[in-house]
């Protein structure tokens, strides 16, 4: 299986001046251009796609829409791909119009504590890793020898690396992805070697298409 994780385009919550807390905001104009560029670039590098998944948050759905249109496919919405803190510890999503705000501690500092401590039932980094890991393992079972795109969030890509590399809870390196950065993993069904290959992370050469328009 080839798994392509794509971070959403720039959203209003990504802007340096944003002070509105944790809100389910759409893409900015730049984010829309980033998503369109990714959609224009992908088919020439990935001819066949078997499934396109996306987080249910607005910024991911709006990023996935032009990609799905480029392949003439439907989006499969999946709450497991939502950004950290936007689901409860039982993995069910918080209502999009009532999202909890993050606490002051960086999640990886205390990975077993809720990162939204003001809201009872919030998830920790480890709860987050479980739901993302469940998504990845399900993809391996259902889409062997197939190509899967998952439009998600930077945190999802971060903990996907933790899961695939079998990193413990107290990580020492953050895996950073730019908006619409593409990460490509390949699952190898072989008993005598590593199960996964990382081909690239945070690939953004489609940004060049924006410069040429």
Describe this structure in words.
This protein has 213 residues and is α/β, with parallel strands linked by helices. It has one domain (2-211): Rossmann fold (3-Layer(aba) Sandwich). It contains five helices and six strands. The chain has helices spanning 29-45, 58-71, 125-142, 154-165, 207-211; strands spanning 2-7, 51-54, 75-77, 147-152, 182-187, 196-203. A six-stranded mixed beta sheet has the order 3-2-4-1-5-6, sandwiched between helices. β5 (182-187) and β6 (196-203) form a beta hairpin. α3 (125-142) crosses α4 (154-165). The model has no long low-confidence stretch (mean pLDDT 96).
Strand content bin = 15-25%
Question: Helical element count?
Answer: 5
Backbone CA Rg: 17 Å
CATH top level is Alpha Beta
The biggest beta sheet, please? 6 strands, mixed
Low-confidence stretches: none
Class by SSE composition: alpha/beta
Identify the CATH homologous superfamily.
Phosphoglycerate mutase-like
The CATH topology is Rossmann fold
Choose one word for the global shape: globular
Query: What's the end-to-end separation, in Å?
Result: 34 Å
Briefly summarize what is shown.
This protein is of the alpha/beta class.
Map the helices and strands:
Blueprint (H helix, E strand, L loop, with lengths): L1 E6 L21 H17 L5 E4 L3 H14 L3 E3 L47 H18 L4 E6 L1 H12 L16 E6 L8 E8 L3 H5 L2
Parallel strand pairs: 1-4, 2-3, 2-4
Antiparallel strand pairs: 1-5, 5-6
Helix pairs in contact: 1-2, 3-4
């Amino acid at each position: 299986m080839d798994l392509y994780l794509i971070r959403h385009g720039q959203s209003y919550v990504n802007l340096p001046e944003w002070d509105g807390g944790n809100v389910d905001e759409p893409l900015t104009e730049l984010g829309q251009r980033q998503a369109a560029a990714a959609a224009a670039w992908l088919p020439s590098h990935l001819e066949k796609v078997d499934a396109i998944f996306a987080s249910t948050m607005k910024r991911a759905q709006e990023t996935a829409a032009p990609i799905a249109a480029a392949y003439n496919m439907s989006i499969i919405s999946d709450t497991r791909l939502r950004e950290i803190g936007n689901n409860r510890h039982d993995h069910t999503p918080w209502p999009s119009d009532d999202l909890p705000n993050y606490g002051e501690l960086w999640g990886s500092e205390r990975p077993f504590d809720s990162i939204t401590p003001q809201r009872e039932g919030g998830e920790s980094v480890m709860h987050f890793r479980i739901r993302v890991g469940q998504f990845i393992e399900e993809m391996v079972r259902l889409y062997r020898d197939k190509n899967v795109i998952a439009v998600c969030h930077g945190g999802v890509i971060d903990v996907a690396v933790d899961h695939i590399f079998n990193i413990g809870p107290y990580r020492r390196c953050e895996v950073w992805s730019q908006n619409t950065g593409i990460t490509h993993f390949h699952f190898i069904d072989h008993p005598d070697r590593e199960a996964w290959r990382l081909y690239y992370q945070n690939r953004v050469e489609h940004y060049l298409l924006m410069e040429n328009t």
